[in-house]
Amino acid sequence: MNKSYFRIASLYLLLGVGMGMVMAASENFALRPVHAHVNLLGWVSLALFGLFYTVYPHAAANKLARVQFWGYNIALPVQMLALALFVTGHAAVAPLLGISSVIVVLGVLCFVVNVWRYAGSSQK
C-alpha cells in the first residue's frame, strides 16, 4: 500500500505543477483553490501518509488504514473535480463537493487515529 501512496502522490504532483503552468501561461487563476488543494491534499498529504506507513508498517496492516486509503483516494479526485466546477460557477455541484469533502475528512480522521495508535510504538 505504501508504494501506492507514493505513486498516486506523484500523479497529483504532476497535475498540480501542470495546473500551475497552465494558469501562469494563460494568466487565468480561477482554479487557484483547486491547484492549492491538489498540491496539498494530493501530493503532500498522500506522500506523508506513505512515509508514515513506511516507517510504521504495522499501522498500515489494519482495516482502518485500508478504509483510509480507499476512502481518501476515491473521494479526493471527486472533490477536486467538484471544486473546479464549483469555483467556475457550477453551484449545483455543491452537494457532491460537500459529500466528497466529508469523506476526505473521514480519511484524514482514520489516519490521525492510526498515528495516535502507532506513532512511537515499538512495533515497526
Automatic annotation (TrEMBL):
InterPro entries: Cyt_c_oxase-like_su1_sf
SUPFAM superfamilies found in the cross-reference section: Cytochrome c oxidase subunit I-like (SSF81442)
Coiled-coil residue spans: none
Name used for this protein in its record: Cytochrome-c oxidase
Keyword set, alphabetical order: Membrane, Transmembrane, Transmembrane helix
Transmembrane segments: 40-57, 69-87, 93-116
Domain of life: Bacteria
